[in-house]
Automatic annotation (TrEMBL), chain B:
InterPro entries: ABC_BtuC-like (IPR037294), ABC_transp_permease (IPR001851)
CDD domains (alphabetical): TM_PBP1_transp_TpRbsC_like
Keywords: Cell membrane, Membrane, Transmembrane, Transmembrane helix
Keyword ATP-binding belongs to the record: no
Cell membrane found in the keyword field: yes
Protein name in UniProt: ABC transporter permease
PANTHER family noted in UniProt: GUANOSINE ABC TRANSPORTER PERMEASE PROTEIN NUPQ, SUGAR ABC TRANSPORTER INTEGRAL MEMBRANE PROTEIN-RELATED
GO molecular function annotations of the record: transmembrane transporter activity
GO CC, alphabetical: plasma membrane
Species of origin: Halanaerobium polyolivorans
Listed transmembrane segments: 12-32, 39-59, 65-87, 94-118, 138-157, 184-202, 222-245, 257-281
Classification lineage: Bacteria, Bacillati, Bacillota, Clostridia, Halanaerobiales
Superkingdom classification of source: Bacteria
Localization: Cell membrane
Amino acid sequence: MNNFVDKVKSILTNLALSLLSITIALIFGVFFILLTEQSPITAYSALYEGAFGDFRAILNTLWRSTPLILTGLAVALPFRAGLFNIGAEGQLLMGGFTAGVVGFYFTNLPAFIHLPFAILAGMIVGGIWGGLPGFLKAKMDVHEVISTIMLNNIAIALTINYGINYFRDTGRQATPRILQSAALLRFNDMADHFIFGKIPFIEIFEQPGIRLHINFIFAIITAIILWFLLFKTTLGYEMRAVGHNPDGAEYGGINASKGVILAMFISGAVAGLAGVGEALGTHLSFMAGMDAGHGFTGIAVALIGLTHPIGVIFGGLLFGALAQGGLEMQFAGVPSDIVMIIQALVIFFVASLQVLKVYLAKRKAKGGVE
Amino acid sequence: MNTIRQMLSISLLLASFRFATPLILAALGGIFSEKSGVVNIALEGMMLIGAFAAVYGSALTANPWIGVLFSMLAGLIFAAIFAVVCVTFKADQIVVGTGINIFASGVTIFLLQILFGVRGTSPRVMRLPFLRVLGVRFNPITYIAVILVPIVWFIFFKTHWGLRIRSIGEHPAAADTLGINVNLWRFSCILISGILAGLAGAHLSIGDGSAFVREMSAGRGFIALAAMIFGKWHPVGAFGAAMLFGYAEAIAVRVDFVFIPSELISAIPYVLTLVVLAGFIGKSIPPKAVGKPYYKGEK
């Protein structure tokens, strides 16, 4: 019972730190808004209106959150295994590119084969792009941060610079448009769908300007699966043990290499799914710039979400709301790039406040001795 | 045959120096911070803010040298933020480094709008003059970068300061018992790396061109990091690697290859670095305490 109270306390402390970081970041943001000679109240209310103002705004916030939840998960899972994946950006690109190419290249497949094929191909290539640094770490002791940075840049060269030029058929910096048989279902097409159409009131999604697609549902399901994997399976226990104390885990009979490689492979596949969603749901092709730094934002998302899969959903929603609301702020005359600044500030404060947590833990430990 | 002649031409070699300049400077900066035990993936962001500050300084005063001063100051300020959060507050260096990079992207685009009223490319400003030495013509920052290589080597391997920094990066607790203030030295080393990365940025914006373009560092901070690793954390090694990577960039721009698409040549530095890290060509081993915050009194 005492254990349970401790657990709740620790979750609440972490939650308080997350909220505190966001609050401080928004307060610092005021300074940047004042530089634009606009009222911070106008700017922040525009931000809020843009993100949550009406039904459409809320759904588009969910749409923007989708890749962020997935890249957040791709950072959070290896984090639990003691690994820092800053390669989500490259994994997303590889996954998105693969899905985009499969999406237009195979012309004669029925949708029930084409779509799963494109999704799986994207996830597997993303997974390989993540698993490779895992392998290098486990077998050759190469630090995953450096190898993922290198792989990010190799991915940019392969997909955006080379891949697009190789396949493109118009002046657009993108691969050809994918076929309808590989497109992810959009919420505003659901009323006409042969299964989803039967859900009552589904036609409320049928209005212009709603860009949410089914990858959001996939993202939530992925979060739940990863939660289950981490906390309810032996494999997840082993991963967390490796993250907590690699030597101890090895001594206890856990194969640390396996944990490291698997955690990175799964993480790469999840980041790949983020790219798949952007290619097959949002842009309907693989486009230069569609990664939009999601891989790096994922780090902030994971930190705010306490690197817990369910927490990451909320972290993703927060940053999705900032991105969506930022547009409205731009209309109000405040550069939407302030959102990027706030995002960086959140990272600084979450990271700095960790020291507060260490301090609290130390004080508690001292109290225990006395 | 023609390809090979193009690959070996003098003009290409000279162009390599031009492309290598920011890599040399940032890699030297990286060596300072990593030798003291701090992973610095924020080089990219410091370079970007340096590039912006250089253009702003030059626009403000119509004097590119003031721009250079501004770039180093901006790099210093960003490095100070990085150092406070990582060294004073002991936050995770990689997390904060990523934060600095995002911060630099956001702040530069934001300031472009506030100060210049544009979103993509700044107006043209006064650029640094070329300096002709021994028949070749470069902007002054290239000469500074090349001269700094032996100086940094001398500092690290022939002075007490260098020995101290190296000892902090290998075994901070041992350095501490000898009365070396570990965190103060780390703080200073990060500041030096910021100044150098800022200067690298000035080369991009007012040395090699005359305007700031959003995201103009375009991963060069990461290539510099790769050059540092490829050069095994040694100033001369890093210089060689930076020249190799600069050459790769130059041939990607100038030479038409039949067998490799030029878009893929830009990936060569990264592939080479992975190969070196994996130990296929002489293993590259980082300073031992790199990445770990130092708490006084811990083993």
